[in-house]
Amino acid sequence: MKKIFYTIDRVIPVNSVVLTRDKTLPKDGYSFFVTDEGDVIGKFYNERAKNYLEEEIAKERKSGKIRKVYLKDYPCFPFRAAIEGFYGTPFTQAQRKDLLSFLKKIRMNAYIYAPKDDLYHRDAWRNDYPGQTLSLLKELREEADKNFIDFYFAVSPGKDFCYADDKDYLILLQKLKAVSACGIDKFALLMDDIQPVLSEEEAKIYHSPAHAQAALANRLAKDLPKSAPLLFCPTDYMQNFDTPYREELRKYLQPETEVFWTGYNTVAEAITEEDGEIVKKCFGREPILWDNYPVNDFSPKKRIYFGALYNRGRYLYKTHKGYTANLSSLYECNKIPLATMADYAWDSEGYDAEESLKKAVAGYFKGCARAGKTFVRFNESNIFKKRYPVKGLLEKGNFAALDSLYAGMENALEVLKQKAPHSFLEETQDLFSAMKYEADLYFSLRGKREIDRKKTAEKLNACRFSAADNSFLKYAAEKACLDIQTEEERIIYRSWKI
């Protein structure tokens, strides 16, 4: 949330730069001003903020001179994380290292290790991590430190954890202490996507599943060596209303523990300030928003989301401790939407989704930003924003505009194939194929050329991914009697105003 108190449009030679720590600033915040003599006086909250401050001064300083300015900058959300919390193939070690560097670049400050398909994290949580894996975790923690990123290790034992005696607890504690020996001192307990049912023995001890989970979280918070509060994902992680589960959690979970929620729905079309006020009361504390974007492990599964974050209240930070982006298993494809989410987390009051997306696209698609913008517009999230360029033109019968639209798609794909990052092209190969097949089909039908119906349908159906607007594919299936499989759109549960 940058505040420029004054700027004088003249530059003066830099005489000295003096930076000092100031704990009265907001977390991760910094400020600096330039005196008449050219002395740059800067203050920073912590080492991470010092890094931000040095970057800011470097941007202002040119050829040994600097303009006379006084500014202060700090984030709306003090906790700004990316979580590897998806179902699917976990990231590689190299991808995680790259992610930590990217998080530093976009001013996020935490990474949460929680891949659902890491067996040791969830399904086989009782098993100790192999020594080699622990070494890799230690390596990641060290890399996180270099990038001023807080490293959180999460475990998800809720599918079959026994609360009735100490056996499972001691197994879990031993596992986490082995992780702690790698220098990791920040933890998360995730109890999402489970059946919250107590056995007869457990019911003799605890009033409810929420009571049992709270007792487990409280005990871990007490017994684990840690430098930050325990993070906790409850079983009732969505809903913007109170539940019996939340009543029990509010009663028994110690107040220091931070609690996640995902909005009124698992993937929320919008989250308002009113939602924030309600959920703060439901949990008896300010929650951390776990935003399920750009993750794509839900239906429809043939989508990759490249668009900006939309429909999040400007003042949600007033009722939340933090903000977390849940990534997809397509590592490289996360970077553009994640950059916009980072902009929101830093300055939600001033967040402009379109400007943020423009900046993210230009930063990622260097030398081919125009093609990148075209590609992204075909692959935004219809959950946030209803954009159907093809549908609207089809309904109007505006085929001249459709000619231009599909020609633009084809051109963008060709440019990106030549200039986009190789890792991006690898992950989007199927999506590129689907878009190219769709454009080919359009021009074939437009030119009344003969098509091989069976082969065309087979090629399209074999693609793992497709673009956001499948209106033409539905049109073609009907007009040309093609057996093309298109998924139904996700139902929007409510309207909103942000």
Q: Could you list some keywords that capture this structure?
A:
17 helices; globular; 13 strands; five-stranded mixed beta sheet; 3 domains; eight-stranded parallel β-barrel; TIM Barrel; disordered C terminus; alpha/beta
Molecular structure report:
This protein is α/β, with parallel strands linked by helices and 498 residues long. The chain folds into three domains: 3-73, Chitobiase/beta-hexosaminidase domain 2-like (Chitobiase, domain 2, 2-Layer Sandwich); 79-359, TIM Barrel; 365-498, no CATH class. The chain has 17 helices and 13 strands. The chain has helices at 47-60, 93-105, 131-146, 167-180, 200-203, 209-223, 244-252, 273-283, 335-346, 353-364, 369-377, 389-396, 399-419, 422-427, 429-446, 453-462, 471-479, and strands at residues 3-13, 16-21, 30-34, 39-44, 65-73, 79-84, 110-113, 150-155, 187-190, 231-233, 258-261, 288-291, 322-326. The chain has an eight-stranded parallel beta barrel with strand order 6-7-8-9-10-11-12-13. Strands 1-5-3-4-2 form a five-stranded mixed β-sheet, covered by helices on one side. Strand 3 (30-34) and strand 4 form a beta hairpin. Helix 2 runs parallel beside helix 3 (131-146), helix 6 runs parallel beside helix 7 and helix 9 (335-346) packs across helix 10 (353-364). It is globular and about 70 Å long. The two termini are 19 Å apart.
